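Consider the following assembly input.
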Amino acid sequence: MGRPRTPLLDRERITTTALELIDECGDFSVPRIARRLGAQTGSVYHHVDGRDGIVELLRERVCAAIDPGTLERTPWDAALEAWARSYRAAFAAHPRTIPLLMTSPVRAPRVLEQYERAVSLLLAAGFDRAEIMPLIIALENLVLGSALDLTAPEIMWELTDHAPTPHLAEALAAVGEGRADRAFELGLTAFMNHARALRESGYR
Amino acid sequence: MGRPRTPLLDRERITTTALELIDECGDFSVPRIARRLGAQTGSVYHHVDGRDGIVELLRERVCAAIDPGTLERTPWDAALEAWARSYRAAFAAHPRTIPLLMTSPVRAPRVLEQYERAVSLLLAAGFDRAEIMPLIIALENLVLGSALDLTAPEIMWELTDHAPTPHLAEALAAVGEGRADRAFELGLTAFMNHARALRESGYR
DNA sequence: ACCTGAACACCGTTCAAGT
DNA sequence: ACCTGAACACCGTTCAAGT
């Protein structure tokens, strides 16, 4: 009992285990993290600021895969599009984290930094101050929404004979695999075209 | 004890109470619903198919506010845009239901019917079968994503002095109230323009 | 410093028993 | 038919106590 010679727990291992549990089961719990790491539930609280603290660590972990270099590219629209793709790829690797992250505010400094850079990019590109957040929020909705679609390959709509939906069934069959990817590409194209048009009109 | 002369519980009251709890606290629990209705926790299970059943009732309740008549309008793009606005208004009234609904498949027949109609509309408008679901999914992401933004007025990003983000703070201040509404309008305009362009190019 | 072990209030779910 | 009351396995969180 008491303290082991080599620590059982640390923030790194706790985050990794939480992410594993989410990828496998869609959720995590403090007791299950502790069990996987061979420790008691209470011990986790010595390393982490409760369940919410773990959620914020997860945000940092997943967002660490976003390539910050994308935002340095030129021109601005190439940078924004590359950022969106990198952003989406990061969450596509762990789509089931999204519902967990969407209900709590972004605190993680490294993630806030990314937004800061994105805002700076659009300011430098000449966008009006008041339209920058709507742009970033719309892009973020697109990215996270379409990444979330990756979680339930074909089970977003549970078609039954009880409610006949022939056209819906047909449309689902016609798009097949990669439904979520196509929705992302479509949304991204629409967004980028509109962003470019917005900027042009602002120069008039 | 035993059975009261006038029933304490029914699906309607259970759904209403769950929705009240979500609007107030962001979540619901079976015991809390029971307590508000003056019944025991176990009694709820005689009317409803567990917690998941309540979630599906919530989906039906919130979606009932979507005007199905919008999809009958002409031309097709006016119908789709009106549907999107009605869809968003329904969820804007109860934005905190969104995280709850996003992780479970749509089973409610009345909701499936809405999708069936939307697919039919786009088929009739001449869209290719394979691009209809991407269109609907992209629109849905836009609607739900921007409705979810309504939950946390200004607390989506928790800016601290620890991580200085002057441009982000400036952009947030510049957009002010109605941030989520602006992101929706921007996204919707982008989406509708792209949908029209897609259809035109398909006719070539 | 790091962990245990027990406690607390809270979940979702089931089910015999009552009227 | 409708509800109670008790049970079960599971949460998140705290904290004295141990080494």
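Residues 1-3, 29-31, 41-42, 45, 50-51 of chain A lie near DNA strand D (CB under 10 Å from a C1'). Ask yourself how this observation constrains the way the partners meet.
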